Amino acid sequence: MVMRHHGVLVALIAGIALALAAPLSAQQSRPAPKANQPEPDIEELTPGQIRRAQERQRAEELQRIQEMQRAQDLRRTQEQQRTQDREPPAPKSAAPKAPPASAPASPARAVACTGAFAKDSSHLKLATVFNSLNITFTEVDGPAGAKVMASVLFPNDAKRRLEVWWQNEAARSGTYLIVINGQSTWTAPKGLRLGLGLAAVEKLNGKPFKLKGFDKDGGNTTDWQGGALLSLPGGCKVGVKFAPDPKAPEAARAETMVGNEFDSSDAAMRAARPSIAEIILGY
Prior knowledge:
Strand order of the largest sheet: 1-2-3-4-9-7-6-5-8
Number of strands: 9
Structural class: alpha+beta
Radius of gyration: 62 Å
Oligomer: single chain
Shape: elongated
């Protein structure tokens, strides 16, 4: 009995020994881990970690692009500088010219009994105002076919021509007469000008006036009858010569072709349709 138990005990001990030997053998066959080597820590990335990684990647890419752009700009600037250094400097543009000073306005073609046409004027004053190139001292037609010396403004321009006679012919000073005739467009005080008819002159005078018939010297005014044309600013006097209309009725022209004095409102005188042919201002 004891022997049988002893055999069982031996078999049991042998089985335990074999069971213990198998794991030990397995442990001995597995390589021992290296000293101080941490075990790998494997984790799955969270969505937040993935997003941050992507943002960091985009920021790095943007920074690289900006750096490339700055480098290109720097190269372009350096190239432009080198080009400028090679090229000769462009000549400095001339400073813009100041606009030419406007020429002094030409005196209006209107005669006043003051200034250049005042009683104490002279050829020199006229030359100063109207430019010496626009004035000459020459012969002009005087009364009864005579010739007198006078200063003539714009002698080569019929529309701007104007005669000035002098009290002292030798010194060409002291205004005596200012004569507007021919095709001149000069105007006298109060708006008198060549070509005005009787009615227009009556309006300027403020009332009818008297004139002589149309003899060889024309129909000169004889009396302004106290109208506005009797006295002019500056102290000069005005006289007007009328000429009949060549196309007026022959009977009317014949009736007024005498040396008698007529009223400007006379029917025969009106029928002759006279207009101003000459204006004379005098002191």
